[in-house]
Amino acid sequence: MKLFIYDHCPFCVKARMIFGLKNLPVRLITLLNDDELTPTNMIGKKMAPILQKDDGSYLPESMDIVHYVDQFDGQPLLSGKTNPAIGEWLQQVADYSAELLLPRFAQADFEEFATDSAREYFTHKKQAAIGDFSAHLANSADLIRRLERDLQTLSPLIVAPDAVNGQLSEDDIHLFPLLRSLSIVAGVSLPDNVEAYRNRMAARSDVPLLLDMEN
């Protein structure tokens, strides 16, 4: 199967994770961020991730891909219970995480920004959504302090480094992509067990962190 992605995209990370967790082969294909034609030809609109199945048909939407791949061999892996507190925590951090992440993504060496026009496309679209990137970068210290307080709140919710609730569940598919994205932010102090979970999940899912792009 082929998975069309943007490397920075947390929804794409969700789809990548299930292949790594189940040790299933997949060919990753990174789309240029300003390539509207390719995904539109596949599914009628510009979005990622998109899975091309073995039969050549296309499946969009990250969690639809996760469910399809998890059930593919009749042995679903995401069988653990979810914890509503994880979803509440993610919603809380979502209120401001884009202000930390999007300006840094726009500066980073992602394959989807391999051309100037692709990077400019991303910057224009995202600044229209959240405001001037330079203003958010200037506010980084306050945002990082807020994040570190929230990470302290997350710490007691993590049961084990192998799975946030002790057994793999959809909570892992939602939590790790944000923690992976946040690894691009320099100067963030994580509680030991949050860092251990992030590192272990990166290894288990075969989705590397962004520490080499940290800024």
Automatic annotation (TrEMBL):
- SUPFAM superfamilies referenced in this protein's UniProt entry, alphabetically: GST C-terminal domain-like (SSF47616), Thioredoxin-like (SSF52833)
Any one cellular-component term (Gene Ontology): cytosol
Q: Which residues, by range, are in coiled-coil regions?
A: none
User: Which InterPro entries does the entry mention?
Assistant: GLR_AS, Glutaredoxin2_C, Glutathione-S-Trfase_C_sf, Glutathione_S-Trfase, Glutathione_S-Trfase_N, Grx2, Thioredoxin-like_sf
* Every GST N-terminal domain range: 1-77
Check the record and name the Pfam families matching this protein: Glutaredoxin2_C, GST_N_3
- Please give the name of this protein: Glutaredoxin, GrxB family
What is the native source organism of this protein?
A: Serratia odorifera DSM 4582
This protein's gene is called grxB
